[in-house]
Each structure stands twice: as structure tokens, then as C-alpha cells.
Amino acid sequence: MSGTESSDYTQRLARLENAGIKRLLPTQAPYRWNLRRLRLGRVLDVGCGIGRNLLNCGPGSVGVDHNATSVATCRARGLTAYTPDELATAPDCGPGAFDSLLCAHVLEHMDETLGNTILEQYLPLVKPGGSVVLICPQEAGYRTDTTHVRFVDFAGLRAHAEKAGLDVARTYSFPFPRAVGKVFPYNEFNLVARKPRS
Fold first, then answer.
1. Which stretches in the chain have pLDDT values below 70?
2. Claim: this prediction has a pTM higher than 0.85
3. Are the beta carbons of 108 and 137 closer than 8 angstroms?
């Protein structure tokens, strides 16, 4: 997770949120729609950053992030977010407390072993039969951030899901077909899975 712990990283996320064309057009609308159509219910947003996705999750959703400045930014926006230590003792955040887990633009910031560990750490908080959504940037997006350490494509997402014992329901490229990800920095790999009921 090199470089993502600092307040500078939080400030970078805030700057990018409203940079360029984003000031004029609702560029996040397709991504909000993508989350909402998955009907994720109460979400645990792992690696929530400054809350871009958490803002679009269901009532009672909670973010967790290792960057305390990002967590503070979420709280300033009226969102519920914790550092990992805080989450461990937070009310209504115990085993099976969440309908789903979202891990968006996180796994590319760490090696495979740590990625597996993160999922293993937070999956117990998702109810049996709950959804797990993993999202990573495609090529053009991967190149935009120097804190990215590993390119995670469909095969990489599926490997994480299988290691975690999840049942993969589907994978898809969003918002455009896969080939577009080589030039469009906001194209994403999406994986939707289920936590087994037993």
C-alpha cells in the first residue's frame, strides 16, 4: 500500500474528484448507476478513500481505510468511516453485519498476498450469501497512479475471489467494452461474487 497512507494522498484524491471535465459534467453518474443496480444493501466499503463510492451505497453503509486523513474526510462528508482498529470495536459492525463488501480500486495498490489477507480480514463481516464486488482499473487507468504496484485483470480478480472461497457470479468491463480500457483511464474490471451460505 505504498504511498496511500499519507495526507498528501488524500489531498490528491480530493483534487482529482473535481478536476478537468468533472467540474462541468456528471462523470460519476455511470459509476453510481453501476453500484446501485447491483442492489448491495448495507455495504462495507473496504479502502473507501474519501468516500466517492460510499456516497452511493445503501443506508447504514460503512467505510474502512488505513488512511486516517481519508477517514476524517469521509466523516466530514457525513459518512460513517473507520480506520481498521476503530472498525474492530465499532457498533453494528461485527460478523455478518453487512449485506455486501465492496473493494474498489484497492487491490492494485498491494501485492497478491496482502490483497488476499485484506479480503480474509473483512469477509467475516459479510452475511452468508452476501455479495462481494471487486473493481480494478484497466490499463490506461492503471498507468495514472504511481501508487499502483500490480496490474489486476479479470484473472487476478478471479484468483482473489477463489482464494477467498467466493462463488463468482460474473465479470464484466465497465462502462465500455474491454478494448477501450487500453486508452480510456476510467474503464474498470468488475467482478461480482457471493459469499457461500455455509
1. 1-2, 9-10, 12-27
2. yes
3. yes
